[in-house]
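User: My collaborator sent over this chain with a note saying "see what the structure looks like." That's all I know about it. Can you take a look?
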Amino acid sequence: MDLLFLGTSAGTPTKARNVSATAVLDGQGSGWYLVDCGEATQHQLLHTSLSVRDLRAIFITHVHGDHCFGLPGLLASAGMSGRRAPLDVILPAALHEWVRLGLAVSESHLPFELRLMAVEDFQRWSTADIQVEAVQLSHRVPSRGYVFSEVKPEPRLDTARLDADGVPRGPLWGQLARGVAVEHDGRLIDPQPYLCASRATRRVIVCGDNDQPALLAEVARNADVLVHEATFTQPLIERTGASFGHSSAEKVAAFAQAAGVRNLVLTHFSARYQNDPRRSPQHRRHPPGGPLALRRSADPGAGPATLPPGP
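Assistant: Without extra context I'll predict from the sequence alone. Here is the result:
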């Protein structure tokens, strides 16, 4: 899995940073997943190699506009791009009618099936390569984080089992290795039982707005990557006495260290933070431990952030 940050600004865009959107790229092919879709996300995509035809699912963390206002436009453009495959969109139930009405009144007729799923009822979404689950967060409105876990990364054939089950070597093995079911001796053979991971699986958590990182304690333990908001600096929160349902870099970093998170990525910075290191959301006291990255710019041209191999 790789990550591509399409927007890292909180509330409103800046000249350098768009509002929230993060692409999770499938390491097994061209497929990708979108977490949040702030206004102009589709414009950010134009600076990348990603195609909406390869978009497998969209996950919206909460109802605030900087996380979802780009959704109707992206869907309409997906239709005009020639997409035909169904698209699952997991989002708060309150947004379902808004999406439908926006498409209807603008006469945006989608040539593909749009499957809106309520995050309130969401348990698990999966493909052959990725499994996605949700975790409840704390914000001014209900908010979630999404946990992406690899399924059998870089799969290889379990040749011993194939031999034991009498599946002959040759073209059949080649098809099974590609994940294609084959017929042998009058029976259909599912490739999944004969595929096993060639390395450790990786787990990536992409969060919506959240002022209580401790809610992630269970799912974040030993996670490979945690992407979390750091809207304000801790000194600002302490001075004003208000966080507006957000976290600081210092608070999230302390949590990540305690949870054993291998890599922490901070994002969703207030628009007040520009390219002035004196006003950076990065607090000057860094806890020791795993790597810390701040996505200061939503510059898709810089390419995806490749995740380190699993342990």
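A starting point for your reply to your collaborator: Helices lie at 41-45, 71-80, 96-105, 159-164, 171-177, 217-220, 234-240, 249-259.
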